[in-house]
Each structure stands twice: as C-alpha cells, then as structure tokens.
C-alpha cells in the first residue's frame, strides 16, 4: 500500500473566469488572475491510498462515501494515470497503475458557506494523485478538467490561468505570476453572507450567459483583455490603488453580464451590495486623507459573499467597521464572528462610525467573517498522523471525527 | 385671468433611456420606446393661471409652495414663451407673455413609491403651458428639457423618443408609433416594492455609468441599436412573445450597465429579482402549454418596482400568483393590496401554487400592486371644477384637500 496526504488552497479571482469555450475540457473564454489564500484558515485535504489488496475504487467526501463515477473525477484520474503510464519505466509505477484506489477528502472550512470549495478540492485531488503516481511537471491542466478554477489553486501567490489557443487545451494552464508576499502584509477578509436565496450553479450560469448576453461578447472580445493587461502591469508595478480599481471593476463586470443573462443569474444580494457600497465609501475617506495605499477592494464570485483585500495596516479598522455596520447575531461574540487570524477590531473615528451607521443593517446579515491572508500552493504532508485513511486498512480513520464508518 | 387645467400620464420604457449626450439640453445616447399608461390610475395634474394682476410667479407642488428657480422648469417656461412670442401676432397672446404665472401641480398617485413622477409632471407642466399660451405643434422637445423621459408622456400608446443627431436637440423628439389599443386588452401591473435602501438619483447614475462602464460603450454602439430595430419590428408585427423577450432583455441590460458602473448603481433589490425570477418561471409554464400569447414581461426603471405587461386573459391569474408569492402585510386586505382596475385574483392551478410557494416571501415585501392599462396622452380638462387654483384668486383651492393655504 502506498499512501499520500496533501492539502490545497482556495483561490479568489481578481480577473474573473466566467464562460467556457469547451465544456468537456473546461477551456475558458478569457484569461483569469487569482490570489491563492493561506491554507491555515481554509484548505481541502485529501489522502490517497493505492494497494494491490483493495477490492475496488472507493471515495469518501466530507465524511460520506460517494461514487467515483463523476465524469470530472474520472477525467482527472484517467489523465494522471495516462501521464504515469508514459513514464512507467523510469518511475517504477508499473503495476501500481492497476491497483485499486481509495480517496478520502474533506474541507477544513465550513461547508454550505457558498465558498468555492471545488477549486481547492480538485486541486488537492489532482496534486495528491500526482504524488501517489510520481508525476512530475505541471498539473494545472489536469486540475482544470476537474473544476476550471482549480487549476489556479495548484500554485501559491498571484496566479494567471491562460485561456490557451489549442483545441485540446494543452496550453490552457495556470502559472504563478507573483509570490505570496508580493503585496507585503496583505490580508483577506471574507464576509460570509446569511443568504436564504436559491442559486444558479456556475456551470449552468456560464452557459446561459454565453448563449444569451450581448454584453458578454464585449467583455470577452474587448473589455477583459485590456483589463487583464492593465492588471498584470499593476501587479508588476505594485500599484495597489490601480490593482484595487481593476479588481472591483472586473467583479462588477462579471455580475453585470450575469444580470444581462436570460433569465438573469443573480448571485449578489442586498447584503452584498451594501458591503460593496461601504467599501467605496471607506475608500473615499482614505483617498480624501491621501492614503491610497490603505485602499480596500472587494470581489464577489458566483455567490453573495464579499472577499475583501485589505492592507494589514487597516485590517483592524476594517473589521471594526464591518462589525458596526453588520452587527453579529445576538448569539455570537467577537470571537465567533471574526474567525481566522486573531485580530481585535480597532476603535473607529467619528467619521467611520457615522459611515457604518449610515449603512447599518439589522443583526445577522453576515454569518461571520474569515480573516486570512495570501498563501502558498498545495502541500504534501509527510506526517503520517495527518492521514485521513487508516494506514493499515486503507479505510477512513474513525477517530478523525469524520463520522465515517469503514 | 386665463386658466387651464391638464393631466398627463406616466410612461414606462421598454427600450430604456440611460445616458445623456448633452446634460443641459437632456439629449440621450440612444433611442427609447415606452408605453404610456392610463391616466385613470396614475397621472399628474397641473393648473396654470396667468393674470395681469398677479404680483409674482408662484409654484405649488403636491400641496407645498416651491421656488420656480429650478433651472429645468425655467428652461421649459423660457422655451414655451419663446415659441409663443414668435407667433404672437396670430395668436393674440401678445401682452399675456408679460403676465405673472401661477402653477399648481400634483400627482394623483402615491408619492415616495419610487414611480417616476417627473415624467408625468414635466409633460403636464409643458402641455398646460402650451395650452395657456396657445402653442401649436410638438411639445415633446420642450418636455424633454424638463425631464428626458417626460417627452414620451406627451403622446399615448407606444411612443418612440428619437435621440436625434443635431447639437441643439431639435430632432430629439418623441412620436407615437402605435395607438393605446395596439396590443388588444393589454394590462399593466406595477409591483411597488417595500424598499429601505438608498438610491442613486438617475441623473448622477447615468453620468457615472457613461464615465465608468465599459459595457455601456457596447450597449450604446451596438446592442441597443439592434434591439430597438427588433422591437419596432415586433411591435409592427404584433409579435407579443418577441416583444416580451426584448423588453426583459433591455431591462436586464440597463441594470447590467448600472452594476458595471463605479461605484455600482444598484436599483433592483432582492424582492425585484424574486419578481423577475417568478415571471420567467410563469412564462416557462405558459410556454410549455403552448400559450406564448399569455407571456408576461417585466421591466424595471431606476428603482426596485417591477412593471409587468400582462395579457388581459391572464391578469387574474398573475394577481393570484403575486398575492401568494408576496403576501400582503397583516394590516392589508385584497382591496388595499391590489389597487387600480378592480379584478379578483383567480384561483391557481396546483403547478402555479407550488411555483408561488417556491419563491414565497415573508409578508410585506411588496407594499401594493397597481393594476392599470395603456392609455392616451395629456388631456385639457374643460370642467372648471377640476382646477387646482381658485378661479377668482388664482391661489390654490383650500377645499381641494391639498393642504395648501393660499
């Protein structure tokens, strides 16, 4: 039996992926750029065992046994095994390719929070498969076939996913463009919205936008191309103010083409829009006092949660502002409302207090905040105690609190 | 003393006006098309008196004395007087042009409902000025200088506002393109949302969109031009299904460019989006049973209220659906919730019941519904009892319930 355990991060796009040119290979209509987030606060974890004694392939996800028949998982598995078989003479994996596989995955962050867990999940699965079969080289194009944005979670820091030109998708890969510390002391605050509304899944939503939105044609052919170039320039020049403006513009444009879809795909809700308005007002205050490096920016994926990029120097102030504008529910205290990197919300100036009060919401509009930072790519955990599978049986550990019975 | 009393209708655009090419003359960046609504349910009413004995110009709006210094009112007044003076020898208005003027205006529909009252208000003001000074010919380009969309309220039925090409705006006029009964037995249901959020005024919003939205460039240069042509074809051919699709697409596109604005202009709220989604689902049911002529469409102006165009054959069903999906607040009954043309909501099929329940909202998300229809242009009321001004004093009538003290 051979066992590996890996973790992989979540990533948040600042130039958004919305729309495919190939549904099966998951090839996007435009390049995208993302920040990979720290695995200390949010990550997917996967243990893979292969053994000649296993009777069949098995898969457990978040404590529940699932079918491995999912075509996206099968595509990833097939592609990794194909790559492994091409170099089986050097690597000594010959034979192991015929062994059955046990896969156990879970996310360490709350599910049902609307946080794209599939990116971290597929990046982790593919990275762990790569480790178990001894694959070298880029795995981003494999992860892409599990979930498009998963390819960006294969690397840390700032990552660009190239849409590529080839029909077979071989050049639709992700590459790091700046290390995690590129914008020094940058923090990330995720505002998890308490949302009761139904969603349109992003696969269906993207398809519908591509088919029905006229504005999408302009986004793809003109707008996002020039914005991506401007974003790369802003990143290279560490122009934080420009980076913020481009990030908010691209988030707004993505949600605009979703609104321009028939029927419309609506992901932001009233709370999301109130957070966005508050950030613009906060930036007005900072800009008026000349602190453009204290600018905060928001971005929203296909869900109501705001992801805020915040210079470390103002994170305490921002947390104070959010707590005042979006008071926690009566059953929460500061510690359960602000999770992640421990930071006390700082006292607000009179100006910021009145700003928060102006946008003030009833309690409970946000479930909680996750305070995290930018981080590195997937990790291979050498500590065998981290394994989600029992190293003797290859079945999920009972003591893991997984609630999985072997 | 000479006195006239006129009423003028509200209009609802199906191809939206959003963005000016000239802020002072109020010249739009694109053509727009609207339905003029019946004055039985919603209208503006204006009485104008001119007299050689008046000491000064005076203006009362919704029961409150206001300054006439507003530059938009002054522009309308100046332009009407200029036209009158050009033909003073024929019309015998010479002399009266120097008399002071008393203007008293009010809306017969609830204020603070977010229903564009300025279109009806300025159309009424300009139409009444035209009557009092004996102006003949088109007044739409004068009304336009009060409030852009007011020019469309100068005519009944379906109206097109041509953006025009001239710098002086002389060809930016409205013209009827089909009479009120063009789509026979068409009804209109306005869903007035109970909205607590702040708005961006449309003048500021339009300016911001034109300056910051990249998608707006495409809307103006490509999208809205071809959609306007398609809309005129659909209207001429009485293709109701196509008319509905184009109306919803243009509303969605307008709100998309608003979302693409920096900072975003957000006019629709969670309730608005739920109404829109319900209409799409209702249409799916109707289309599945082959009734494309029973299709309903929505359009949203720069506010959260849905305006629905509904074939008369299904208006009872739609009212039933809305009442079930958006139950009135506990203090309301059906009569205070559904205002306007009296119609009983009909019983729903099991399919529609479950559709309403799926989207079901807490009570009070909508304030009330206004059930109305398409109507004609401004009217000159010959019945002197309709006057808002006392015919002997030229001051607001006390018995009018205006709350105006003379």
Automatic annotation (TrEMBL), chains A, B:
Ranges where the Diphosphomevalonate decarboxylase-like N-terminal domain occurs: 8-174
Region of interest called Disordered, as start-end residue ranges on this chain: 375-406
Domain Mvd1 C-terminal: 188-379
Biased composition annotated in UniProt, kind: Low complexity: 383-393
Keywords: ATP-binding, Cholesterol biosynthesis, Cholesterol metabolism, Lipid biosynthesis, Lipid metabolism, Lyase, Nucleotide-binding, Steroid biosynthesis, Steroid metabolism, Sterol biosynthesis, Sterol metabolism
Pathway(s) where this gene product acts: Steroid biosynthesis; cholesterol biosynthesis
Molecular function in Gene Ontology: ATP binding; diphosphomevalonate decarboxylase activity
Catalysed conversion reaction: (R)-5-diphosphomevalonate + ATP = isopentenyl diphosphate + ADP + phosphate + CO2
One GO cellular component term: cytosol
Stated family: Belongs to the diphosphomevalonate decarboxylase family.
Protein name: Diphosphomevalonate decarboxylase
Organism: Petrolisthes cinctipes (Flat porcelain crab)
Taxonomic lineage from the root: Eukaryota, Metazoa, Ecdysozoa, Arthropoda, Crustacea
